[in-house]
Structure formats: C-alpha cells, structure tokens
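User: tokens in, sequence out, please.
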C-alpha cells in the first residue's frame, strides 16, 4: 500500500473516530434524572421509618411550620457526637463529606440545620402532592389545610428496606424529594438552583449562624455529590420508571422516558438510541412472558448481539469472503514469495513480487485492502454499542445470576471486598475468562487457518520481506487482542457479555466462510481439470 493511501485511510479513520466518540459517549441523563440520583445519595437525615420513632415530624407548608400528628421520626441524641453517629448510620453520604471537611478545619452543619432543611423539603413535597389529583386520590387527601391530620408515615415515604416494595407504593418524598436538587423554576435546565433557594428559606427560619459556610456547601457537599453521579449514564429508556441502584440505600431512581428525537449526534441517532431502545423493548418483552430479572437482560444482549453481527456480516460479506479466499491462496502466495527471496533488499525483486501478487489478486478478484474496510465499519459500531450498553437503564437494574450488575465493570467486581462475599466477583472472573478465551480464538483463528493452508508451500523457501510483514500483522493482532481484553476488563459487564457472544458468532462465521470457500475452490479445481481432460480427448 502506498504511503499516501495509508495516510488518507489513517486520517479518515481518526476523523471518523472523533465524530463517533463525540456523539456516542454522551450521557442520556437529563437534569431530572440527575436530580433523582442526587436525592438517592442525600435523602436527608430524618428517619421516618426508624424502629421506635418517638418524635413527631414537622414540615414548613406554604411557609408555616405544621406538626404531622400521624408521622414520627427517630429523635436525635442531645450529645452532638452521638447525634452525628446517628446521622452517619442512616445516611453514610454525610460521613464521607464531613470527614473531608473536618480534616480541613471547615465547620460542619448543625443538627438543627439538617432537620430544618428536611422539614422544608418535606413541606414542598406536601404542597406538590396536594396539587396532584392522582396522589390526592391515592392517599385519600382532601385539602392541604388538613395535612397535619391526613398524612401518615406510609404517605410520606416508601420503606426502602422492604425488598417487596413496588414503584407504585411510593410516598410523597419518593415522588417529589428530587425537587430538592432540580431547577423547577427555570424549566428544569440546571441542577442545584432549587437547593440554593431552599438554603435561603432555611436561613429565614433559623438564622444565618446555623447555616453551613459556603465552603462546606460548595467545596465539599456539592462537589462530593456531583462526583458521585458524574459517571452515571444509565438513563436511556423509552419507559419511564424506577431503574438502577444508587446511593447508600441502593434506592431505585425514576428515570424519564427518552424520545427518539433526543439524540445529540448522527451516530447516536443511527445506532446508539436504536440499540438502546431495542434492548429496552426486548427486556420488557421478556419480562412480559415471565423471564426473571437478570435473565431478561442477558437474553436481550444475546438477541442484539446476533442482530448486529448479522447485519455487519451482510455489509462485509464480500470482504469476509475475500479474506477466506486469501487463506485458500496461501500455497500460491508462498510460491511467489519464494520466487523473490531478495525482495527485502532488492528494489527490483520487490516490484516484481508486488506485480505478481497483484496479478494473483486480480485473477481471483481479491482486494487486499478489504480487511481495512471491515475494521473501519466495525469501529463506529463498537463505539455505538458501547454507548448503548452503558446508557441503557434496564442494564443498570438487572444482574447476571442476580449478583453481578450489567452496568458494573468486571474490574470493580474483582477489586471490591463485598463482591467476593456476594458471589459477584466469581461471576465476573468467570465472564472475563470466557470472554478472553473466546476473543483469543476468534481473532487468531484466521491466522491458524492461514498457517495450515500455507504449510505445503513453506518448503519452497521463505521471503524475508513477507516474513517481516507477517510478523508485523501478528503483533498488530496481539495488540488489538490485548486492547479488547483490557477494555472488557474495565468496561461494563454487559459489554463483556456482548463481546463473548460476538466472539462466538465470529468463530462460527470464520469456520462457515472457510468451509464454503474451500468447497468452491475444490469445485473450481476439479471442474477445470475435467474440462482440460475433455479438451485433450477431443484433440486426439
């Protein structure tokens, strides 16, 4: 291949890669989705479901503090140290934040501030609940002026410790608690605007001195929570509902349905959204026929894998056939290479060998650059599938064998102590070994077949130039294999499953294509032999 051609192909690949990466790796999570995630990390410090709840709950409803006669929470100890221990036990998010702030000498928020903020958040949630006809009917509410007597603990909060709790059993805070972080005053475009307004409201109730410093709120609290949700991208769904597992409580989060028009780039529109939506439809369909959570996602990945690989096979069938035919031509290729043993140092021999190789390729209708075309097609598809797998909401809510979540990486499972006690690490290790083994066979199988086809021509001698080129190709294959195994180790386990199924598909495709090509070559060989014999008989 000429240097100019290589540069053009390389430049085009880089440009294509830049376009794909910019449009396929963006997060599908909206401001509303992120607000729900933030609330899963900080749901306050008031434990309405605590055993032995002994203190009546209060809420600032329309600016007025009311006592909820049928809602209690676990009161805090008079000792500040013990009170903070109670908070950290109920909401471990604060422990991490407070430890970092205390280390730097930053004043921590008071218990009064935290409980007052909870009362303000609850009050706003109550206001929204009484303005919602469906919730008023669900909880038998009449008028907000009767909230003090009408509201119960069940109406306020769902019990997240109950494994059988259903999304439809949500309480008022489960439905509207996320507004603590969302920008409901500015068309829901910016996070934290509501939180800032709530802080100002708290100042009016308890005074500025009780409110934490700006340093604590911005540099520790806000920064910590933003970091906690920064890598969450599992928000691609066409069905609004509870997905995933977020925060200290591992609480499910309500993710909003995404319209097909909500795409940010060409490849996202063409591949990422459709693949993610297909996983969504398939998973929900498998649920509908009684397939359990976890297996439904696994079957969805299997179907999607074979659909994508099947489509790619149709698009690259000519190139795949050419690669198989190249294997059949190895004896003839070896003869040409042996004919010019000095091609590595002799320019004339090098040109003559190139001409003979070109004649052979032309005679057999083979384009040696076809393998590059296959790679150019596969690269954007791989990135788009990765984006869809990372972004799909259902894959964040299911687990392989009920222990390894599809959205968790294999590496995180192997290097987490808890994962070894739950069995997630063992499943992750098994998946990694299977995926790595299958990928190794899939990528090296063509070389093994090629080596087998060429063994009869090796006796004619070796061509140093071609030997050097073959070594480079081997190293390239090994490097690509190492990259795939490394990415399979670090990306979501759902992607590892996709690669496992994809490798199995590739192995089958290679064997089938090789068998078909060998059969055709055999027919052509014996067909031409018969024609030659018939012609000689006629001449006689």
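Assistant: Sequence out:
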């Amino acid at each position: 291949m000429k240097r100019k051609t290589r540069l053009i192909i390389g430049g085009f690949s880089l440009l294509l890669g830049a376009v794909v990466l910019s449009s396929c790796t963006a997060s599908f999570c909206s401001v509303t989705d992120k607000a729900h995630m933030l609330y899963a990390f900080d749901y306050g410090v008031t434990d309405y479901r605590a055993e032995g709840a002994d203190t009546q709950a209060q809420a600032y409803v329309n600016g007025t503090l009311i006592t909820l006669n049928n809602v209690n929470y676990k009161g805090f100890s008079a000792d500040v140290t013990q009170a903070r221990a109670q908070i950290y036990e109920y909401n471990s998010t604060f422990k991490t934040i407070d430890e970092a702030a205390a280390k730097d000498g930053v004043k921590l928020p008071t218990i009064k501030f935290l409980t007052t903020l909870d009362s303000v958040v609850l009050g706003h949630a109550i206001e929204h609940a009484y303005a919602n006809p469906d919730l008023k009917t669900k909880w038998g509410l009449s008028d907000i002026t009767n909230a003090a007597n009408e509201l119960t603990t069940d109406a306020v909060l769902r019990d997240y410790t109950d494994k059988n709790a259903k999304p439809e059993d949500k309480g008022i805070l489960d439905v509207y608690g996320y507004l603590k972080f969302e920008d409901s005053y500015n068309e829901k475009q910016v996070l934290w605007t509501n939180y800032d307004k709530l802080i100002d409201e708290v100042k009016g109730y308890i005074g500025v001195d009780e409110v934490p410093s700006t340093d604590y709120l911005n540099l520790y609290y806000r920064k910590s929570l933003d970091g906690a949700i920064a890598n969450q991208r599992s928000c691609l769904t066409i069905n609004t509902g509870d997905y995933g597992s977020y925060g200290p409580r591992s609480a499910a989060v309500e993710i909003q349905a995404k319209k097909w028009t909500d795409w940010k780039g060409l490849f996202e529109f063409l591949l990422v959204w459709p693949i993610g939506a297909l996983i969504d439809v398939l998973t929900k369909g498998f649920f509908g026929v009684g397939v359990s959570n976890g297996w439904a996602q696994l079957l969805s990945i299997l179907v999607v894998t074979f659909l994508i690989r099947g489509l790619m096979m149709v698009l690259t069938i000519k190139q795949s056939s050419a690669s198989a035919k190249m294997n059949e031509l190895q004896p003839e290729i070896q003869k040409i290479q042996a004919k010019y043993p000095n091609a590595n140092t002799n320019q004339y021999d090098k040109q003559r060998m190139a001409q003979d190789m070109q004649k052979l390729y032309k005679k057999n209708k083979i384009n040696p650059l076809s393998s590059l075309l296959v790679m150019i097609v596969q690269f954007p598809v791989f990135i788009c599938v990765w984006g869809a797998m990372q972004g799909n909401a259902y894959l964040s809510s299911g687990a392989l064998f009920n222990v390894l979540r599809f959205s968790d990486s294999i590496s995180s499972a192997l290097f987490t102590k808890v994962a070894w006690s739950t069995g997630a690490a063992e499943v992750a290790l098994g998946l990694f070994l299977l995926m790595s083994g299958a990928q190794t066979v899939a990528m090296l199988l063509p070389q093994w077949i090629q080596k087998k086809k060429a063994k009869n021509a090796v006796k004619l001698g070796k061509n140093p130039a071609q030997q050097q080129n073959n070594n480079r190709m081997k190293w390239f294959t090994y490097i690509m294999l190492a990259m795939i195994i490394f990415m399979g180790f670090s990306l979501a386990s759902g992607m590892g499953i996709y690669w496992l199924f994809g490798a199995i598909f590739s192995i089958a495709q290679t064997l089938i294509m090789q068998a078909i090509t060998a059969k055709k070559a055999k027919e052509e060989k014996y067909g031409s032999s018969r024609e030659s014999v018939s012609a000689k008989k006629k001449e006689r």
